[in-house]
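Suppose a classmate hands you a notebook page containing two proteins, each written out with its sequence and a corresponding row of structure tokens. How would you begin to make sense of it? This section walks through that situation. The first entry is reproduced here exactly as it would appear on such a page.
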Amino acid sequence: MNMQSRFKSSSGRTPEISRREKIVAGFAVAALLFSAAAYSSVPWQAQLVTLALSAASFAFLFLPVGDDCRYSKTARESWSALKRFPLFWFGLALFALMLVQGLNPAFGVMERAFYWKLYSQDFVRWLPSGVDAPYVSESARQGGMNAFRQMVVFGAPWLLLCALRCGVSRRRSWVAMSWVVAVFGVLLVLWGVGMRLSGRTELTPAFGSRNTSFFATFLYQNQAGAWISLVFAVTVSLFVWHWQQARDAGAKGGPHLVVAVIAALLVSAAPFTMSFGGMISLAVLGFVITPLALLSLILRSGAWRGVLLGGAAAGGMLALLAAVFAVTSDYSSVEAKLRHKFETAKSKSLDDRAPLRRATWELICSENGRFAPTGYGAGSYRWVSPAFLVRQPEFRTAAGKLKAQAVYAHCDWLQMLAEWGIAGVALVGGSILWSAWFFLKNIRRRTPALPILLGAIVLFMLHAGMDYLCYSMPLAGMTAFVFVGAERLGLLREVRVAGRKAR
């Protein structure tokens, strides 16, 4: 039995997609696209809309939809699937921790016109504590952030993850969703490339920044680079799917050729983000993991000629696009950034994020680790870190004052430890360990899309150790999409055994 035949239902007919699944998938895609399009979900209004769309996708797991399709899940079946999903319970426990921290502040923030300061206040000492900070702030340079806003930032991707895992099971639904993501992704990337070529450094005059330059709607170019890598993984998994469909149908062409063009555009545009970590991630994904995965497809299918011709065509398009970009573009800024990275590593034996990580570690260990078990509180980093940043020479003026502030630690795992403590990081670690166990347990059912999608997530996690990515709603949401896609498109369905239905 070949791989593609195992993709089909045991009855040989393509199952109908239920109305409930279409609604859940529709709201999920809307949340993914809106979060990336709306100033990359930095404004609090965009964050709330993204949360509302994700919550709608989750809610339609249970709401009545008047669906008479025999493949439609009932609310009871949706709940049964949800309660068997460990990441639902890990996330629920983490949000409970954040809520307690937000309701039990040990510190308050006093704002003035041009500065702010922390003050101590009474709190229940045997409960996790936090910081009573503004949800939205125009006076403090850090902007608003507290436990409740952070619950919004992480709540939307978590609801999206649960909705996708429990509500979207048909591969045709995933293929349709992946097409929308791929097309939207390449349009956003081309917009960013156009901005680079024209020399624009701001989204609009109303959304300019002194500290960085926009790439399309992304304020932070490293987040743009990471987002492109995730979209690339979705695109290549889509290529694998359509190529298998075309091969089984005996077609010489097909949608996979269009997908190959989109993938080539994403790879060629990556340097324009000027994201060092993003370029490395995409290079490993595009030139190491993907070729090995496609090679396994060749060996398993035996279709050498078709795959080699398709690969040659995709490689030719990629080379042509790369040549056009190289001739028409100025890479001086990219070269300058790369040179700075290598010179810093050579002269100081560290990277330019190291002072932030040192300060964050000192924050975690302060007062003999009194806050280490449950952290300083969700959304507290930007408020409690300045006292530790000023101890680093890179953040201190000659007069001993703080010359620069940081709202993120540029190491997500350390920031999680500082804000959520050992308890919160243990929940995150438990989610990662369960996910690794799940895919290793089912590794024999893998398709070539699995290493590509999981490889993108692993690279994202490594990149998050050097930057702030997990705290971005578009990135967290896209990671959730890729994760569930790794199961839906990356694993073969189980065949009918002893009269039981396939998954």
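The notebook's second entry, a different protein, reads as follows.
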Amino acid sequence: MKNTRFLLLLTLLAGAAFVGFRAIMVSEWTVVVEDVTITFEGKGVKGSVSGLEAEIKFSPADLANSKLTASVDANTLDTKSKLQTQHTKSEKWMDAEKYPTITFTSKEIRTTDDGYECVGDLNMHGVTKEITMPFTFAEAENGGTFTGVMTVAREDFNVGGGGKTAAEITVTITVPVTG
């Protein structure tokens, strides 16, 4: 009986150690590209962007070595209105032909009361600015989901001119990953 309890206890401790080791060691995530959603919304504009390419190294137990780089093709912008989409991609706004790639590169990831935040450089329309993006990470059995929301001021990136369109655009990103 004592041997059975000892073996059970040893098995439980080994399992707990393995789970704890996995949480610390698993940091390279593979994006499930077909399930990624990136939406944007502001006064007078609403749509999505597709084709995320990303490298994500993230571990809640090792934020100092966590980092991410991501990019999307500005030509994938879609407002569900053919005319508005063409206008958004035109020289007057995003100039997707001249500036086809929007990139984000992290500098630091830290914890917050609500999850995490990533400080990094957003490059869009030929301009690079530091931004902070709050996000959460919900880990699942073989992966998880990163969800972030950031606000981007058009003028900071020389996108468009005045008018009735929103000065700020809210971008919501949901990135499922496998480990």
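A careful reader of the second entry would note: The two ends are 39 Å apart (CA to CA).
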